[in-house]
Amino acid sequence: MPPMTEQAPPSPTAKTPRSAVPKTVWDLVFTLIIPILILSPNILGSGISVSETVFGGGTTGNVRAYLLAALVPVVYVLWDLIANRNVSPVALIGGAGAIFSGALAFWYVDGFWYAIKDSARSYLTGLLFLISAATSVPLFRVFLDAASIGEKPEDRAATQQAMRDPGVHRGLVLGTVVFALVDLLGGVVNSVVNYQRVTAKFGTDDFNAQIAAVNAVMRVPGLVISLAGVGAAIWLVQRAVQARYGTGASLLEPARLAAAMRERGEG
């Protein structure tokens, strides 16, 4: 009988790779779909509700379901930061915003004050950006700076040098102001919709159901408004960069920016 030979464990690369789920999908699941399902008094027409089935129903059950729906996105965002060890300024700002939203969940209000509360994060963000525009470091600069973190040191240095240029700095200030104003506008729109549609008393089935409906309705418009603010701000900054370093320069492409600066003898 031939001697038995020890077989090596199968290599992980031998397994059929599974396609990774895009992070955008996970974001959608944990920040929109799961909260809506938790708030729904009749999940997908099944007659089941988290408030009734898990928390016993009534005002207490509805409040607990409301808190759970509000805290799931907070936990997801914080877990994402910790798991990915993301300590960039942008990530930390996002984490702070998530904590702020989580804290507001314990402010039990309805009607006008709920409409204000639901947009409080947008209002706070807009105000912080406006205040930063009067300082030497407008917050939109922080976002653009974070985009160059993974670039080569010389390309990142070119980005830093460009953002210190007075003309580009003015573009960053203007972009920060525009972003802030659009974010504030988005908050106002969201407050108006909530005030019109969330009319039930806090702690009721209808209150939770109305919140779920508004969250679903406002997701796309809110995203469009945010993207419009970012797009307008980037356009203003890019216009300033190209006016200073030429049409081929781009703050979003550090290598091209560095090349344009070298052509001018500034790199």
Cα end-to-end separation: 74 Å
Mean pLDDT: 88
Annotation field: number of helices:
11
Query: What is the approximate shape?
Result: elongated
Indicate the proportion of strand residues.
under 5%
Element pattern in H and E: HHHHHHHHHHH
Rounded to an integer in angstroms, the radius of gyration calculated over CA atoms is: 24 Å
Largest sheet: none
Amount of helix: over 70%
Regions with little confidence, pLDDT below 50 for 5+ residues = 1-18
Structural class: mainly alpha
InterPro entries: UCP028137
Transmembrane segments: 25-45, 65-83, 90-109, 121-144, 172-193, 213-237
Keywords: Membrane, Transmembrane, Transmembrane helix
Organism: Deinococcus koreensis
